[in-house]
Amino acid sequence: MFSASSATASSSSATAGTRRGSGAARLAVGVLASALVMAGALAGAGGAVADEAPQHQGGATAALDGLKTFDTAVLRTDGKDQQLPAGLFEMTVDGGGKLKTYCIDIHNPTQDQAKYLETPWNQTSLGANKNAGRIRWILEHSYPQTDDLQALAKEAGTGPLTERTAAAGTQVAIWRYSDDADVRASDAQAEKLADWLEKSATDTAEPKASLALDPGAVSGRSGERIGPVTVRTNAGQVSVTPPADSASGVKITDKKGKAVTTAANGSQLFFDVPADAADGSASLTVQATTSVPVGRAFAGATKSQTQILAGSSESTVSATATATWAGKGAIPAVTAKKNCAKGGVDVTASNKGDAPFTFDLAGAQHTVQPGKSETVTVPVAEDQAYDVTVTGPGGFTRTFKGVLDCKTTGTDTGGLDVQTADQPVTTTATAGGSTAGAEGNLAETGSSNATPIIAGIAIALVVIGGGAVFFLRRRKDQSTGE
Questions:
Q1: Helix (H) or strand (E) holding 153
Q2: How confident is the model at residue 57 (pLDDT cuts 50, 70, 90)?
Q3: Tell me: the pLDDT tens digits for 435-448?
Q4: Kind of pairing, strands 211-214 and 225-233?
Q5: How distant, in Å, are the alpha carbons of 208, 214, 259, 275, 395 from that of 221?
């Protein structure tokens, strides 16, 4: 749901931007390409062409359309009451499909048409939340998963529910677990639903990704089948497109060397590289249409409040893995993912070559011996954009971008203006445009149509014990997306 903010959208954007540092770098979204894109020849043994790799482990990518089905709630912070909307958001999936989500980040703002990525729990605030499983239970047992509102009202003992009050009650119950918020629904029946959901919820496991490839990067010698890359999906079948550069001779095969154009959950894919292939790199993308599992987290590609999935149409999902090969020398594979437990980004480099791979990462040099791998955690401040580049010999470059958003602010408003119950409610547009009816007179707390503009700065962080200084570069974000 929308975060606590001042009564006007402009002051909300300015205050939240100052407090949270919500400017973010644009993340490359080439993962949705539905082809195998072949890279150019490498400058030297073990090298690779320049690449910008997003921290998306696969699944759905979507744009926020705004708050669509909601009623009101009252958030109490610092002894003051603030009225705010509570209910369901909608998102449009890249490639086709619609998602319905609830907020799990009450004190953070949304950004207009923000890009969202399906994300594992441990790369969001849910990773450290002992009640994350209860939130999934609430999603599975309330609206819109239970769309028979009469039956839901009877089970919860609430009295009549509408779509709006059911959505509000569900969101309020989620906030109590996601943000430990002191919040209540304005409608009496919605409040009864929230209480029942909160008391009834039991721990439920995190749902698996709609589609992912494991690992996201592999390497090996030319003349070999490089892999395996394992498909993880809830779809019955995924498509695998042959190489775009057929002249390269690189094929995607199973472990027996048979070329494949489709795969299923558990399938192992290999890059079959000819012995005479020039040192190079290629990307494999698989795609499917499926319903994204309820309870999957969606993190903003730019700084925008984290969401959790409540419902999905048949939607387009995809995942990408890369392969690097060479005839001799170092042959690296590099991946990165957010590490919320350590407050940074884990960059992992492996080396399948016959010579050491030495690379520079954020001001420090590291060497991976043949047949080994090394993970380096680059510290990133909470809510900050990061832009981390790995460089190695022969022109090898990999760049990883994103925003580290691992925490909620809980009951600490952090300087945000809190709209009390006796203050006038300001009319603003929702994240996806204006909302009709009674909802149209309700301020969208924490939302902003103003594009955040943050001056580029350098953040120097000293790694404990190593003394290495990491330089993380922030960029101006002049439009939404990643």
A1: helix 149-156
A2: confident
A3: 333 333 233 333 33
A4: antiparallel
A5: 33, 20, 19, 8, 18
| Cα–Cα distance, 370 to 377 (Å, whole number) | 21
Provide the CA 421 distance to its chain's centre, in angstroms.
Answer: 34
Which pLDDT tens digit goes with each residue over 93-141? 999 999 999 999 999 888 889 999 999 999 999 999 999 999 999 999 9
Task: Enter the pTM of the model.
Answer: 0.77
**Do strands 314-326 and 217-221 pair parallel, antiparallel, or not at all (unpaired)?**
parallel
Can you tell me the distance from the alpha carbon of 381 to that of 209, in angstroms, rounded to the nearest whole number?
A: 27
- In three-state form (DSSP H/G/I as H, E/B as E, the rest C), the secondary structure along 240-291 is ECCECCHHHCCEEECCCCCECCEECCCCEEEEECCCCCCCEEEEEEEEEEEE
CB 117 within 8 A of CB 59: yes
CA pair distance 156, 146, nearest whole angstrom: 12
Sign of CA dihedral 410, 416, 419, 424: negative
CB-neighbour burial class of residue 140 (10 A; exposed 0-12, middle 13-18, buried 19+): middle
Residue 128 CA: distances (Å) to CA of 150, 212, 408: 35, 23, 11
Contact (CB, 8 A) for 138 and 201: yes
Cα–Cα–Cα angle for 387, 326, 246, rounded to 5 degrees: 90
Model confidence at 40, pLDDT cuts 50, 70, 90, reads very low
Q: Are 229 and 218 in contact (CB under 8 A)?
A: yes
Strands 447-448 and 110-111: parallel
Q: What is the DSSP string of 184-219?
A: EESSHHHHHHHHHHHHH----PPPPPSEEEESSEEE
- The residue that leads in pLDDT, 21 or 302, is 302
Average the pLDDT over 291-303 and give the result.
95
343, 382 contact by CB (below 8 A): yes
Peptide bond preceding 215: is omega within 30 degrees of 0, i.e. cis? yes
Contact 450, 17 (CB under 8 A): no
Core vs surface per residue 361-394: b (16+ CB within 10 A) or e: bbeeebebeeeebbebbbbbeebbbbbbbbebbb
